[in-house]
Design a protein that fits this description.
- The protein has two domains: 195 residues, Collagenase (Catalytic Domain) (3-Layer(aba) Sandwich); 172 residues, no CATH class.
- It is α/β, with parallel strands linked by helices and 383 residues long.
- Strands 1, 2, 3, 4, 5, 6, 7 and 8 form an eight-stranded mixed sheet that branches.
């Protein structure tokens, strides 16, 4: 009878010793997608940290949404504010999840941990466009293993391991592990993207952060003009004849011209092309402008597909097959309606592009990656 209480006591003491160390990890996230991701993972992060970083720690996880300012070179000031933020919130470690890109020695950074400030940065766009929740969790685990002391990670102590960031698993890039020391900011350990595939991954990640599908609701006036022009094609038989005579290749060429015209107009009319003001922004301006062009392009693509579907449904509902055949002088099938809707949509897109503008300034900021960075820099100047 006395053996069971002793066993229970030993187990309890082991569990108490196992969780003797308490660490509060705070996430500072940029407003927008980083905050959405943090809210989605915060409930699971405690168990992940215990399983993959250290089970000798009683973890507490909290997050706070805040846009940290930039320095004169356009770099995010994480280390400068990390001590203040940790003190205000009562955190032991800080990880910043940012929508901005970061460079060290002209190389794009995935994550960076500062051992002196017990803080880290994860650049969300460097994680790519897909499986963001998984990649963010992996990045947090990676920097967490760097920041947590060796004695709380027995496997690292036993193997005599150091504290550099580990490489990513299989993926579309070939990141490399590097450790650097900055005399001003302290000792940092970083993981970086390398090569053309790394640049592509960063660019796709930036487009994902821009969430270009949200542009369509801000183009309602342009969509109304485009829909009216597309309806013109449905009701006039001369357009039917023209659509029937066009080859698929020519139809595709008209589509490219229409979409390119709308992208060009939206970017130029809304002043979305970034003109760098200093050397730091000049270095990244091509990447930012590329992300803007592709983001607007994806948004216009959604615009075009939606208009095409509505035009096709209108054509099927309004034009009787018999009358369609009589006008064309030949049998018609579904492709005949598709061809008509295709040409009408291209015509409508060109008409919608002329004079179109976003009706919400937030849509412009959301689609223009560099614009948000410049606003942060200007806010810092005002402060």
């Amino acid at each position: 009878m006395l053996g069971q209480p002793r066993a229970f006591t030993n187990t309890y003491e082991q569990e108490a010793a196992r969780h003797l160390h308490k660490i509060t990890l705070g996430l500072v996230t940029d407003p927008g997608l980083p905050t959405d991701i943090a809210a989605n993972i915060v409930d699971d992060l405690t168990a992940v940290l215990e399983e993959r970083v250290s089970d000798q720690v009683q973890w507490t996880v909290d997050f706070h949404s805040e846009s940290l300012p930039l320095d004169g070179d356009g770099r995010l000031l994480v280390w400068k504010h990390s001590d203040r933020i940790k003190r205000e919130h009562g955190w032991d470690l800080l990880i910043c999840l940012s929508e901005l890109s970061r460079r060290i020695d002209n190389e794009l950074v995935i994550s960076e941990a500062n051992l002196d400030h017990e803080a880290a940065l994860v650049a969300l766009p460097a994680l790519g466009p897909v499986r963001l929740r998984h990649h963010v969790l992996t990045a947090i685990v990676r920097v967490g293993r760097v920041l947590v002391p060796d004695e709380l990670q027995p496997e690292r102590t036993e193997t005599g391991g150091q504290r550099p960031l580990k490489k990513l698993g299989a993926g579309t890039t070939s990141p490399q592990r590097k450790t650097s020391t900055d005399r001003k900011d302290g000792t940092t350990s970083s993981l970086r993207l390398t090569g053309a595939t790394g640049m592509v991954r960063m660019l796709l990640g930036m487009i994902r952060i821009n969430r270009p599908w949200r542009l369509v609701p801000s183009l309602s006036s342009a969509f109304a003009a485009a829909a009216a022009t597309s309806a013109f094609g449905i009701f006039y038989s001369s357009i039917w004849m023209m659509a029937n005579s066009l080859t698929v290749a020519r139809q595709a060429s008209v589509t490219v011209i229409a979409v390119a015209a709308m992208i060009t107009w939206l970017i130029s009319y809304n002043d979305m092309w970034e003109k760098p003001k200093n050397a730091a922004w000049k270095r990244d301006s091509r990447m930012y402008n590329g992300a803007t062009v592709l983001s607007v392009g994806v948004g216009v693509g959604f615009f075009y597909v939606l208009l095409f579907v509505l035009t096709l449904l209108a054509g099927l509902a309004i034009i009787p097959p018999g009358y369609f055949e009589k006008t064309l002088g030949q049998p018609v099938d579904l492709f005949s309606y598709i061809s008509l809707a295709w040409l009408s949509t291209s015509m409508g897109t060109i008409a919608g592009a002329l004079g179109s503008s976003f009706e919400d300034d937030r849509a412009i900021r959301q689609a223009t990656y560099g614009r948000r960075e410049i606003e942060r820099y200007e806010a810092r100047q005002d402060d």
